[in-house]
Amino acid sequence: MDLLALFADSHDTVDYKAGDSIFNEQQAGDVMYVVLQGMVELRMQDKLLDLVKPGQIFGELALIDAMQRSATAVAKQNCHLAWLDEDKFLELVHETPRFSLYVMKVLAQRLRKMNTLLYG
Amino acid sequence: MDLLALFADSHDTVDYKAGDSIFNEQQAGDVMYVVLQGMVELRMQDKLLDLVKPGQIFGELALIDAMQRSATAVAKQNCHLAWLDEDKFLELVHETPRFSLYVMKVLAQRLRKMNTLLYG
After folding, report:
1. ipTM, 2 decimals?
2. Considering only CB atoms, which chain B residues are within 8 Å of A67?
């Protein structure tokens, strides 16, 4: 799914400089992000979980289950991000089934990765 | 989301006796299941991952990312299950956004559980 195209005209964007913290583990969270430019590191207890590249999402967990952030997100480069709150997220799920499938695939990928880390 | 109601009239059902293996880790998989009656154990390398109860799903990962089964599913009690293949799954994602949200929540829950197992 081409999220760069879907969010190209978004006005809900935010910029971070390399090294900036975007959110921290255990924080409450009510938005998720789409990387438009740059790269974001996801860390859990100082272990690198994932590198999020342009066209990819992060922070979706806190929107889906309304719990605290499971990871820390740090801008690895200067970043230009689109953000979406719960209303926009639900609108996309209702109107763009391919977006739902993409979010499921991201979650599945993270789960497979965890499985490998846990059980080898 | 009330999956029991959604699948009450499904003709695509299958029964397993307590102790039966439904699928095994590393197998290819092209269906997911909704538990209508009974209970299913999900195991990974002989560790108990989850107990799936009536109204809940399992086997969704292999449908989402078309990879092999990440866990073994065993009927813990006599079970009556509805199954859905990729076509039916995609139909539901397109027509029933609440189903998409439910699948995301299940994945999020499994991911949070994994996080806890991995990082405490």
Report:
1. 0.91
2. 112
